[in-house]
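Honest question from a wet-lab person: if I give you the sequences of every part of a complex, can you actually get the arrangement of the whole thing, not just the pieces? Trying it with mine:
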Amino acid sequence: GENVEQHPSTLSVQEGDSAVIKCTYSDSASNYFPWYKQELGKGPQLIIDIRSNVGEKKDQRIAVTLNKTAKHFSLHITETQPEDSAVYFCAAVGSQGNLIFGKGTKLSVKP
Amino acid sequence: KAGVTQTPRYLIKTRGQQVTLSCSPISGHRSVSWYQQTPGQGLQFLFEYFSETQRNKGNFPGRFSGRQFSNSRSEMNVSTLELGDSALYLCASSLAKGLGEAFFGQGTRLTVV
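Yes, you can. This is the full assembly:
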């Protein structure tokens, strides 16, 4: 079935370092890949997304890259800050138009 | 612009009861999707509604149902509650079906005892 794998499940970095989260999707027809940040007690917040006709997209300290051939996409956070600590989810659009989520990455940024 | 509003925020129900959760999407958004979030299974798609019609459904039993009203507000219902239904239920609002950019509400935390 349709699947999105996300790694790592936990990630701990020092403040100021970079963090990278990687995802792989199974459905080659997927054409939209959002990333969500979920803080404790809140719903997922859309932080950046990329469509299949683009290889990279940046928004200040965050960037997403997409390799359609390999069916990989990644989230890059530079100059991490303690407020970046949260659970991050990648997703891909499935054949029915719904989002298929990875299992999440718990990012901890140590001051 | 107001975000996605889900009510109630918290619910405690007893096994065998039924429950109704409500979602008001962002103004102008016509697509509402529901997801169940649990520590073990992560975020799983329940169903999507667009223009009062269920467009697609995830792999959940028939005890899970929903509907959408003409003002795009949506409700989901779970009947004959089981302990395993304890989860965070999230509603996502999109401008239209298949356009991505789904915005989530804060969720309803359902606990079944």
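Two things worth pointing out. Residues 82 and 109 of chain A are 5 Å apart (CA to CA). The interface with chain B takes residues 32, 34, 36, 41-46, 49, 51, 89, 91, 93-94, 96-104 of chain A (CB under 8 Å).
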